[in-house]
Automatic annotation (TrEMBL):
Record-given protein name: Ribosomal RNA large subunit methyltransferase H
Subcellular localization: Cytoplasm
Record-linked PANTHER family: METHYLTRANSFERASE, RIBOSOMAL RNA LARGE SUBUNIT METHYLTRANSFERASE H
Main location: cytoplasm
Lineage of the organism: Bacteria, Pseudomonadati, Bacteroidota, Flavobacteriia, Flavobacteriales
UniProt family annotation: Belongs to the RNA methyltransferase RlmH family.
Length: 157
């Protein structure tokens, strides 16, 4: 199964980029993982929140096929422990679907169309993190999930 992480907006912090790259490489031992960036919208100063979410939503949905499982990283989503998240990943792998897509939205979240298309919403925490940090935390948790499924020692360090 292909697992893809889509994020709106680039990461400027080179330290974060390096850490995300480290976990992305580690993930390649377990799955076909890719990380795609949807560029920030231009000229958003005169754009209201709803319009911006709508335009970002259109760009997100262009990356999603009808057969894909779409999971949104959303503060109102379901929370998991690391073990529960690994079980959720295993359930998705067992479906035989070709592609599992996780999405980190823009600064205002997701459009109604993206919510409607989503199969599930996941919360990383009840706390609020920057969208840049969420990329790192999620990539690390996905790697951790695979090490749990393979009964490898990473989770217990």
């Amino acid at each position: 199964m292909q697992i893809k992480l889509i994020a709106v907006g680039k990461t400027d912090d080179s330290s974060l980029k390096e850490l995300i790259s480290t976990y992305s490489k580690r993930l390649s031992h377990y799955c076909n993982f890719s990380f795609e960036i949807i560029p920030d919208l231009k000229k958003t100063k005169n754009m209201d929140e709803s319009t911006q979410k709508g335009k970002e939503g259109e760009l997100i949905l262009k990356h999603v096929n009808t057969s894909d499982i779409l999971m949104l990283l959303d503060e109102k989503g379901k929370s998991f422990t690391s073990e529960e998240f690994s079980e959720e990943i295993q359930k998705k792998l067992n479906t035989g679907m070709k592609q599992l897509i996780f999405v980190i939205g823009g600064p205002y979240g997701f459009s109604p169309e993206v919510y409607q298309r989503a199969n599930q919403k996941i919360a990383l925490s009840k706390m609020t993190f920057s969208h840049q940090m969420v990329r790192l935390f999620f990539t690390e948790q996905l790697y951790r999930a695979f090490t749990i499924l393979k009964n490898e020692p990473y989770h217990h360090r």
